[in-house]
Specification:
By secondary structure, the chain is α+β, with helices and mostly antiparallel strands. The protein folds into 2 domains: 2-132, no CATH class; 141-208. 41% of the residues lie in helices and 28% in strands. The protein contains 7 helices and 8 strands; from the N terminus they run ββαβαββββαβαααα. Strands 1, 2, 4, 5, 6 and 7 form a 6-stranded mixed β-sheet that branches. Strands 3-8 form a two-stranded antiparallel ribbon. A hairpin with a 4-residue loop joins β4 and β5. α5 runs parallel beside α6 and α6 crosses α7 (193-208). The longest helix has 16 residues, at 141-156. The radius of gyration is 22 Å and the shape is elongated. The mean pLDDT is 92.
Length: 209
């Protein structure tokens, strides 16, 4: 088994490029972790879907990853890197082989890993795709977070006066029906995101202060 040493990882449910890492993300400093070469099609599956990988593979990577902590080095149970020689993804699995969290790498570290992956033989394992991630690749991570924030806030808002004000600010006309206000604002977000999302986001941020 081949290992990569001394890299930084940033695990999330969705896979984010390094330039979308947030300052408050929980960055992991990995001491060592296994690396497996895969095909580009396999890497696309791993990146864009929830998968379940075979039990034999999960057992082979159990306790093989180590992470630096403040005062010690600890073991991570079911973690490894996959690379097709061009891109790299780290995945956290559970004991049943279900993919839980994923991370990309910093660009300099990714280059080192891909160089090593090119020298490896392709790994042999089986997996099944369980669920595809429906991610709008035209939105940044920040915009996705804003979208979730707005959807939650507008559905939670019970003050009809505030909703009427927001509706008028968005469309320049009056509306008193709460359901219609919410429905039309959400439709407008889907159809004209760039024109409206900051106006709605700033409105609810002001209310949250």
């Amino acid at each position: 088994m081949s290992y990569i040493y001394d890299i930084l990882l940033n695990y999330n449910k969705e896979l984010y490029d390094f330039y979308e890492w947030n300052l408050d993300d929980d960055i992991c400093h990995i001491r060592k972790t296994p690396l497996f070469k895969v095909t580009t099609n396999q890497l696309v599956d791993i990146a864009n879907n929830d998968i379940k990988i075979e039990y034999k593979f999960i057992q082979s990577i159990a306790n093989k990853t180590e992470i630096f902590t403040k005062n010690d080095v600890k073991v991570m149970n079911y973690v490894c890197l996959f690379s097709d020689g061009d891109k790299v993804i780290s995945v956290k699995f559970n004991k049943d082989g279900l993919s839980l969290l994923k991370s990309g790498l910093l660009v300099e570290e990714e280059e080192e890993v891909t160089d090593m992956a090119l020298r490896l033989k392709p790994a042999e394992f089986t997996y099944v795709v369980l669920k595809k991630h429906n991610i709008d690749n035209f939105k940044t991570r920040k915009e996705h977070e804003i979208e979730v924030f707005i959807n939650n806030k507008i559905k939670e808002e019970t003050n009809i006066d505030k909703l009427r004000y927001l509706y008028f600010d968005c469309f320049g006309k009056k509306e008193n029906d709460r359901n219609k206000i919410i429905s039309e604002i959400l439709d407008e977000m889907n159809n004209n995101w760039d024109n409206i999302y900051l106006k709605i986001y700033n409105f609810f941020k002001l209310l949250s202060r």
